[in-house]
């Protein structure tokens, strides 16, 4: 189902308001969602706020996995990170989002290989 109420979600540089942004959701959620657009914040698209209400589903506490930094093999970490990022100079990311994804993946890979996990 579509949640939009028909309000404009974009205002062009000429001041023409349109609604190209669409929010889809499962029909079972219909009674729990409200949708509205906010005020102009500098983009041609208006912010969209989706509020979720109802349902008292207590969250299960999650065990927090931690790294045992004292047992880390920092040489392996550095080598793995350098290897994972070796193409960065030849083919740099095309935008900040891609750079974040590449760097985050490289750090996660290096940590997985070089830092043992514990939990508490």
Please state the CA-atom Rg, rounded to the nearest Å.
Answer: 23 Å
Give the distance, in angstroms, between the N- and C-terminal Cα atoms: 42 Å
Report the major sheet. 2 strands, antiparallel
Helical segment count: 2
Overall 3D geometry? flat
Structural class: alpha+beta
Count the beta strands.
Answer: 6
Spatial strand order of the main sheet: 1-2
Q: Determine the fraction of residues in helical runs and give it as a percent range.
A: 25-40%
| β-strand amount | 15-25%
Key phrases:
120 residues, alpha+beta, 6 strands, two-stranded antiparallel sheet, 2 helices, 17% strand, 2 domains, single chain
In short:
The chain is of the alpha+beta class and 120 residues long. 25% of the residues lie in helices and 17% in strands. A two-stranded antiparallel ribbon has the order 1-2.
Overview of the molecule:
- The chain is α+β, with helices and mostly antiparallel strands and 120 residues long.
- It has two domains: 10-52, no CATH class; 65-119, no CATH class.
- It has helices at residues 74-84, 96-114, and strands at residues 10-11, 17-18, 33-37, 48-52, 65-67, 117-119.
- It has a two-stranded antiparallel ribbon with strand order 1-2. Strands 3-4 form a two-stranded antiparallel ribbon. The protein has a two-stranded antiparallel sheet with strand order 5-6.
- Helix 1 (74-84) runs antiparallel to helix 2 (96-114).
């Amino acid at each position: 189902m579509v949640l939009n109420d028909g309000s404009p979600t974009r205002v062009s540089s000429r001041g023409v308001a349109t609604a190209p942004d669409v929010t889809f959701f499962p029909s079972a959620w219909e009674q729990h969602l409200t949708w509205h657009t906010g005020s102009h914040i500098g983009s041609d698209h208006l912010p969209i706020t989706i509020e979720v209400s109802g349902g008292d589903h207590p969250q299960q506490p999650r065990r927090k996995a931690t790294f045992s930094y004292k047992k880390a093999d920092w040489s392996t970490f550095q080598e793995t990170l350098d290897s994972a990022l070796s193409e960065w100079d030849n083919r740099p990311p095309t935008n900040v989002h891609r750079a974040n994804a590449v760097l985050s993946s490289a750090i996660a890979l290096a940590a997985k290989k070089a830092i043992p996990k514990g939990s508490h």
